[in-house]
Automatic annotation (TrEMBL):
This is Alkaline-phosphatase-like protein. Keywords: Calcium, Hydrolase, Metal-binding, Signal. Its cofactor is Ca(2+). Residues 8-329 form the Sulfatase N-terminal domain. It comes from Penicillium cataractarum. It holds the Pfam family Sulfatase.
Length: 446
């Protein structure tokens, strides 16, 4: 039943490229041209993390979220164009597949980016139904781009599908539908939630928003409302859409037994005019700077997670996988290394306990870029801005992220002791990689 406390409902809303510094509750809001009252209120009702960390771009983070494993293991190391092998192989077990074994109803409404061929769509990977886009929002610009024809690059579509059936195209995903899609996604989620509550099924709703991914274009109802341009208008819309889902959960009477998470998949966009901000942190996504690693994360779980709390303890996106399975009483796969750690105890008592995670390794594609351990950050490759890499460092840079949030003063010479725990973390992880060979995937095309 949807009110069984042993199997609480789960709603996971994931923004796209929302930087740490954009929301009011993270020091942005009206300072960034748009108040975010609904998400700010959500933060007051639960736990806000200052040190929630993700992977380098859309595909790596979403794969880590769905599998509990770093993309260096799963092969989901970067976003690639349509038609290329991409996304989670059939061997990986997704969060939705694991929850299905515990009789959860599951739905995906939003951006998938973990497979765009039959066998890899959400409805093939544990979701009862899905609606949204298989890849990315960049593609909305295709049909209006000079020289584009469908013969050279396939048309992007909004799609839908149900488990056991073939996914199908709904409409072309162009700039006009870009403005409408987040409204469409919320309508789908509201309808699905109503049906699942009526059926008295515990549910997992994964709702990956399209905002604020470029081209960052607001719905016409929000265009011009902030007076600060499309980006701020889109942020106002994003806040409103999250509020619509929250209100619907209240109307259905299931708030008290629903774990609600709002987070972002990556740090801010670096391209003008859609460039965002990570607040006090330097860098954007596609770098190993803190502005890439740290993104917003809020969890509300009435009666379980204390209200109005914040923490600077380290939590990683892979931890969502292990934590939600623990909360739902579902088993974590035991036949493969799982990088996520169970944060349930910490989430329930973020003041009296500490995160069981001390750090992690950060890769971009196949390259180990940085190691994060407690309040320390070691850069093995220095690329403070996208496409401005100075290459592998003979002497790595070490920063203290509390005293030097912008990573400006290398202090390795005075703190070489930090290399010991960091190298231990690196050695243990690389050893686990050596004994983690994935079997071949029958859907891989080449």
């Amino acid at each position: 039943m949807s009110n069984d406390p042993a199997r609480p409902n789960i709603v996971l809303v994931l923004a796209d490229n929302l930087g740490w510094g954009e929301l009011g509750c993270y020091g942005g809001g009206i300072l960034r041209g748009a108040a975010t009252p609904r998400i700010d209120k959500l933060a007051s009702e639960g736990l806000l993390l200052h040190n929630f960390n993700v992977e380098s771009d859309c595909v790596p983070t979403r794969s880590a979220l769905m599998s509990g494993r770093h993309p260096i293991r799963t092969g989901c190391r970067q976003s690639v164009p349509a038609g290329f092998p991409q996304g989670l192989t059939t061997w990986e077990k997704t969060l939705a597949e694991c929850l299905k074994t515990n009789d959860y109803a599951t739905a995906h409404h939003g951006k998938w980016h973990l497979g765009d061929i039959e066998g890899r769509y959400p409805s093939d990977r544990g979701f009862d139904e899905w609606f949204g886009i298989p890849r990315t929002t960049d593609e909305t610009q295709f049909t209006s781009a000079i020289g584009y024809t469908p013969e050279v690059a396939e048309l992007p579509y909004i799609m839908e599908g149900k488990a056991g059936e073939k996914s199908k195209n709904v409409q072309i995903y162009d700039l006009e539908s870009r403005r409408l899609i987040d409204e469409m996604l919320v309508a789908r989620s509201k309808d699905w939630l109503t049906r699942k509550v009526q059926e008295q099924k515990p549910f997992f709703l994964y709702h990956p928003l399209v905002h604020l991914h470029f081209p960052t274009l607001p719905h016409n109802d929000f265009k011009g409302t902030t007076g600060q341009g499309d980006f701020a208008d889109s942020m106002a819309e994003m806040d409103y859409r999250v509020g619509e889902i929250l209100d619907h959960i209240d109307e259905l009477g299931v708030q008290d037994n629903t774990v609600f998470i709002f987070a972002s998949d990556n740090g801010p966009e670096f391209r003008e005019p859609y460039r965002g901000t990570a607040g006090p942190w330097s860098g954007t996504y596609h770098t190993a700077m803190e502005g890439s690693l740290r993104v917003p994360f809020i969890i509300r779980w009435p009666g379980q997670v204390p209200q109005g709390t914040t923490s600077n303890e380290i939590v990683h996106v892979t931890d969502i996988f292990s934590t939600l399975l623990s909360i739902a009483g579902s088993e974590v796969p035991s036949d493969r290394p799982i990088d996520g750690v169970d944060q349930t105890t910490f989430f329930r008592d973020p003041v009296g306990t500490k995160s069981p995670r001390t750090g992690f390794l950060f890769y971009i594609k196949e390259e180990l870029r940085a190691i994060k351990w407690k309040d320390w950050k070691l850069h093995l490759v220095w690329e403070p801005k996208v496409n401005q890499s100075s290459g592998r460092l003979e002497s790595p840079y070490l920063f203290n992220t509390v005293r030097d949030p912008k990573e400006e003063s290398d202090i390795l010479a005075f703190n070489t002791w930090v290399m010991q725990p960091m190298m231990k973390l690196k050695t243990e992880f690389e050893r686990s990689l050596k004994y983690d060979p994935a079997p071949p995937d029958p859907l891989k095309q080449w």
